[in-house]
Every structure is written in structure tokens, then in C-alpha cells.
Amino acid sequence: MAALSSRRTPGLQRLPYEIMAHIVKYLDIDEIFDLSLSCNHFQYLVREESFCKAIVTAKAFYTVEAREAERSGEYSRALRRVAKRHQALSQASPYVLGIVGLADSYQYIHGVLCYIVESRPRRWLRILDLHGSAGCELVIDIPTLIREAVPRAAKSRKYKFRVLYHANGITSCLFSFALPDTENWLLVFKAEEQRIVAKVQLESTAKIFVRNNKDYLYFGTHSEEGADGFRKWVLTGFRIKDSFWFPRKIHLTTLVGYDIGSTVYFEIIDDYFYGLSNRTDFEIRETNWTSYYHCFRFPLSDPDPKKIQLMEKNYSWRRQHAEGPIDDRWGFLKLERDQASGRLHIIESRKEWLTGQSGSRRSYYITKVVFDSDLEVSEEENTDTELSTADGSTSTSTGTSTSITTGTSTTGTTTVTTNTNGRLSINPIGHLDKPAIKSSRVRAEENVHQGDESSVDLLFTRSQTHLRAYEPCCSTFMDLVDDPSITSSSSRRLRLRTGYRKRNPIHIPILCPGIFGKLSYELSHETSKVNEENQQPYQPNKIYFWPPEQKPSHQNPFLDKVYEILNPPGYLGCVEASSDERSIVYATGGNADGLKALVYISFDPAARLVGILREECILGERAAGDGYNPEASTGGITQRLRDYAAEDKGKQKVIGGHPRWALPLYVSDTPLTSMYTILPPHGGGRSWAWSEKAMYRDLTGKNFTFAC
Q1: Contact (Cβ atoms closer than 8 angstroms) between residue 345 and residue 368
Q2: Contact of 498 with 620, CB cutoff 8 Å
């Protein structure tokens, strides 16, 4: 009997499948993945298809992985892929690194790289789908395209051509030439079909931008002169199906701001065009003021000013002037879709000198986007306000839960939280002698991620920080910084730097009081004791750098190759970087010919490049501080990469020396067999688009994967 007792299945492993399914509902994907790593018994959490389908549908329905799983039925792979991507982002441990091209200019949009090579007399635009791990790319002969689109421009030998946008296989470019007067044209085409979708001569190109889906295209310029002397935005719409330009333009007379990505933001999401600004007035106020976001949308099919919906002020509060000044150089602004609910959020980064603090701090703010027509959203769900009541208690509405602070006791104040799904949790939040909060607008803690303090910015100035991003899917901020080594402080050394926060376990709600009985009481009792010492809902930021430092005592030759790709010799000029939720592309250079090296970093474990070389894992290095002990760390992501990348396993290769790489010489316009099916030119004429193997395939030994 003793032998049987010693082999008894422990703890949670005895719970029925149905109970585990109920528990998993209260965990996020990363926690589910961690639970699956605890023992072999729980591997079904990330391997069993029907179980994983329910998880992905509930917690990651609006991700690329979920859309692919709908087609393939491989929901377990989608779940593992999402979890690995989150961990790779938060812990600065990418899966793929490579140089994917040499170019004069580039745009990286929705996972597609559009770059121009002006190797005169040839000028080519090349389009490479990096998210799709394409081995071939579309090549557009720019002079031939121009002659077909604007025939009289063929007489002009000097012109400018740049990519504005690419989505759904549709590319928009700005073409300018002088013969003798300057003309500016917007060219819209589908290279795969060799079809010019639209062309229009522009009255102005000031701050021009383009957004489109498969059915509609809108472009805007900051060109309308207002009666107050300030320039305003104006939008023009186009219906792709029947090549119809909407006759009425939309004049955004109340939208303040002109720097896209910093003070204004535009995007097409679902069937709406969205616009966003973090500015209130055209003129700078010297007196006290309250700032609100200006967010609007209108249906793509009907750009009628009467159909414009505005986000009301009770939802769009941003900040109070009395909070302190802002350094606008560090800020960015965007709209982001929540991967679980699909709800839109405003993401803003601000560097502020907050009242009462001697230094500045970078913080990341999240605000739900709510319009009157969103009937499923209640007022309690979407305000971050705290109001003092007559009896001294407070009523708080924060994000997706409503908290009511009720009375006091000898142990302190107690918060009873009722979530929108009906769950209850009880957490002590303070003591009797803690001063009461006065009536004011406050932010929910989950909607504010405190980032770097001014002491960090002294190490990495704005000129040394080439990329600033925030990924709410894993509560991670990410920078691309110039961090020269101690041994060679004069040379540039680009590194990734990430910081992510994790909720303190003491703030996780009790799951099922009615089911677990005594366990619930014990958890709440333990929580009460711990909370008296620590009331912070989130742990301190965990900072990671990648690649890690080269240790003098243990030299890693391959680590030098990684640094060489990140900082290509001969291409150490200015850096231009772009990113999304799964990858980074930046251009650095150029060399004597003006070409820039395009460096690609991917956090997607499914990312591949043709001919990629498998190498040892290069994981992010945890920065010292916050009580972190490198010797005691188990390197959780190391185990994840080794244990759950079975589909990625392969033999490591030792890479020897490689010759200096240069621009490939293409001598033939003959299309190669590829994923693209190029149709004959629309309306006849000379072919101006074809497919070729991707340029990166000729840059030998410059692309690596770190998947085990």
C-alpha cells in the first residue's frame, strides 16, 4: 500500500479533463504554455486539437496564426506558435536573423518588404513577402511601368519614385517628374496581374499617405489651408471594383497634428477608415488644460461627412496638463487590435516629467476605442474613473471590471471586484492610515505600463534609439539601441532591448471559490498576508538584451557573426527601422554606391528563408538588476525552445568564412518558377513585372535561424 501511495498521481493531474478546461479559461496563452511544460501529463494542453481550438478561438482569434489554423485545422500548432512568439518578443530571443536585400530605399508594411534598387540604367522595385517566408519576389521594372502609366513622362530622364503603401497585393507609389513643370502622380497597381489599378495627378503631396484593403483605397494629404491659417488633412476615396473615384472629398478640419505615427494615425480596419490624433488644439496653450484623443471613423463604402463617428470625450480622456511636460521626440501613436476580443485600442508612448518626480519616465498608455454604435460595450467597461462618494468610499470603473471600495476593517480596506463574466475576487488593497484618493480621473493600472526612467535614457539617448515599439499582446516594450561595447566604444553596435512586465501572482483572482472550497480560503488568506507587504499589481520590468555580451572568458565565434549581420561592415550609416508584432526590418548604410543593407529579425518560430542556416540558440540576456541572479536563473525560454520545437529540430552547422557579399547581377528578365502567377500585361504592351528568386538567396551565409 505504501508503494502505491508513493506513486499516486499528484495535485492538479488528478483533476478531470472538464475541470482543467474550466481552469484554463482563466489563464492566458503564455500561462497555458508554461503549465504544459510543468510535466508530460499536461502536454495535451498544447497538443490536443479540439482542446487547442477552443483556446485559440477564445484567446487568439484575431491573430495570423488563428487565420491559418482555420484553413489547415492545426490549432495546436497555432497555439504553440503564438506562445513562442510572445516569449521571443518579451525575452528578446528572435528565431530568424538575416540580410534580405540591398536597396536604395524601402518600405516594410504588413510583413511585406518593398524595396527599390536603382542600379542604373535599371531601376527595379522588388516585393518580398517576409511573413509568408517567400523564396521568390515580384520585380517591377519602374521605367517600363512609368511609360505605360504616364506616356509623356518617358521624355524626362530625371524623376522620383517611391513606395507609399502595399496591402492585399496592391501597391501605391508616388511618381514625380518635371517637364518642364513638376507633376506628381499617384500610381496604384497590382504587379501580379500586371494591371494599373488607378492613376491620378496630385495637386499636393504634403505628408501624403495611402491606405487600402481589397475593395477600397483612400489617400490623404496635409494640404488644405484653413481660415485660421493652419493646414488641415483632406481625404480622397476610390472604389477598386469599378475604378470609381468618390466625387466628395472629406475635409478633416478638426483633426490636429501632422506627423503620422507620432501625433496622428490613419488605418483601414474591417469596413471602416479610422483616424486618430493626440492633439487638442492647433495653438500651444500656456494655461491649465485637459487633453483628449480625437478618434473618428467612417464606412469605406460611404465617405459622407454625415456618417463620420466621433469618439466621445468620456471615453477619450488622455491626460491633464498638470501631470507634467512631455518630450515629444520619444512619442509614438497607433491603433492596435486586441488578439482575443478584436477590440481596438489606442497605444501611445510618452516620455514625461511627472509631477513630484525629479526625472523623466517613458510610459505606455492603452485606451479602448469606443463609439456610440458599439452597443455591446457598456459605459462601465470603458471608463477609467474614480469618484469619491459621500461616505468616503470610492467607486472605480477600470477596463473590463468594476471595483467598489467598501468600508474599512482592522486589517484594511477590501476591494470586491465583479468582472463582466460574473467572476468574483476579494483582495485587500490598503490600510486605515492610507490617505483617501480625492475625486479625480485615474487610469486603470493594466492600461499603464511604466517603462524606462531618465537614468536609462542617459545611457541610450534619442539619437541612439533607432526603434521604439510596444506590443500589448505580451506587455513588452522594445527598442533597437546603439550600445557600443566597452572594449570598442567608438564603433557602432546595434542590439535589441526589451522590457516586459508580468502580473504579480497575488493579484490573480481566485478561480472557483465554490469548487475548490478550502483551497480558495487558504489562497485568499495567503494573499492577504503578502499584500500587506507588496501592493504592486505588476512585477518590475524584466529587461533583456540581444545578442548577449561576448564574454572574454568564453568566446563564441558565432556570436561575432551575429553582431556582423546586425552591424554589416561597410554599411554603418544612418538606421531606418520598422516593426510589427512579429518582426523588425531596418536599413543601415549606405556604402559607396549608396546602397543600404536590409536586416530582418523575426520572432515568429514559423519564419523561414530559403537556404537558411540552422545555428545554435542565441537567447536574450537578462539585464542585471531588480534582484535578478544570473547564476540562479533557469532560462525558461531555453527549455521552451528545446522541448517544444520538435518540428524545427535539425543539426547545427558550423559556418566558416564567407566572401564579401555584393549586389547580385541579374542578366535575364526571364521569370523563374515561383509562387507567383504573372498574367500578361493588361491591355497588351511590354511586360513590366515578373518573379525572380529573392535577392537574399544570393547573399550567401547571411541568414540564420535559431530554432532548435
Answers
A1: yes
A2: yes
Strand partners, 680: none
- Whether residue 180 is preceded by a cis peptide bond, meaning omega within 30 degrees of 0, is yes
Strands 317-320, 290-292: pairing is antiparallel
Does the predicted TM-score (pTM) go above 0.90? Answer: no
Q: Which of 27, 55, 90 is the last residue of a domain?
A: 90
Of 46, 61, 90, at which residue does a domain stop? 90
Q: Tell me whether residue 62 is in a domain.
A: yes
At 503, the amino acid letter reads R
State the Cα–Cα distance between residues 215 and 319, nearest whole angstrom: 37
- Contact assessment for residue 33 and residue 56, using Cβ atoms and an 8 Å cutoff: no
Instruction: Give tens-digit pLDDT for 190-220.
Output: 999 999 999 999 999 999 999 999 999 999 9
C-alpha–C-alpha distance, residues 5 and 17, integer Å: 23
| Number of CB atoms found within 10 A of residue 442's CB | 15
Count of residues making up the chain: 708
User: Mean pLDDT, 10 residues at a time, over the chain (708 residues)?
Assistant: 54 81 89 90 91 94 96 95 96 94 94 90 91 94 93 85 96 92 95 95 96 97 85 96 95 92 96 94 69 95 93 92 89 96 96 82 95 57 38 37 31 34 32 37 89 78 94 96 79 93 69 44 49 70 93 84 91 92 92 83 92 85 66 40 36 29 34 53 75 89 72
The identity of residue 157, as a single letter, is R
Element (H, E) at 88: helix 75-90
DSSP annotation string for 634-661: --HHHHHHHHS-GGG----------PPP
Q: Would 59 be classed as within a structural domain?
A: yes
In a domain, 8, yes or no: yes
For residues 209 and 218, the answer to whether their CB atoms sit within 8 Å is: no
Q: How far is Cα 491 from Cα 564, in angstroms, rounded to an integer?
A: 12
68's CB contacts (< 8 A; 6+ apart) are 74, 78
Domain of residue 73, CATH code: 1.20.1280
By CB atoms closer than 10 A (0-12, 13-18, 19+), residue 505 is exposed
**Phi, psi (degrees; rounded to nearest 5) at 98:** -170, 165
Q: Which domain holds residue 396?
A: 385-442+505-531
**12 DSSP 8-state letter:** G
State whether residue 93 is helix, strand or coil.
coil
Q: HEC states along 436-482?
A: CCCCEECCCHHHEEEEEEHHHHHHCCHHHEEEEEEEHHHCEEEEEEE
Q: Cα–Cα distances in Å, from 287 out to 290, 321, 352, 528?
A: 10, 8, 18, 44
Closest CA to 98 of 581, 595, 708, 701: 701
Helix axes of 75-90 and 64-72: crossing angle, nearest 10 degrees: 160
Residue 96 falls inside a structural domain: no
Helix or strand or coil: residue 535? Answer: coil
Nearest alpha carbon to residue 541 among 608, 472, 450: 450
Q: List the Cα angle 573/575/578 in 5-degree steps.
A: 160
Residue that the C-alpha cell 528578446 belongs to? 92
What is the domain count for the chain? 2
Of 531, 543, 465, 563, the C-alpha closest to 498 is 543
The model's pLDDT over 231-288, given as tens digits with 9 standing for 90+, comes to 999 999 999 999 999 999 999 998 999 999 999 999 999 999 999 999 887 666 656 7
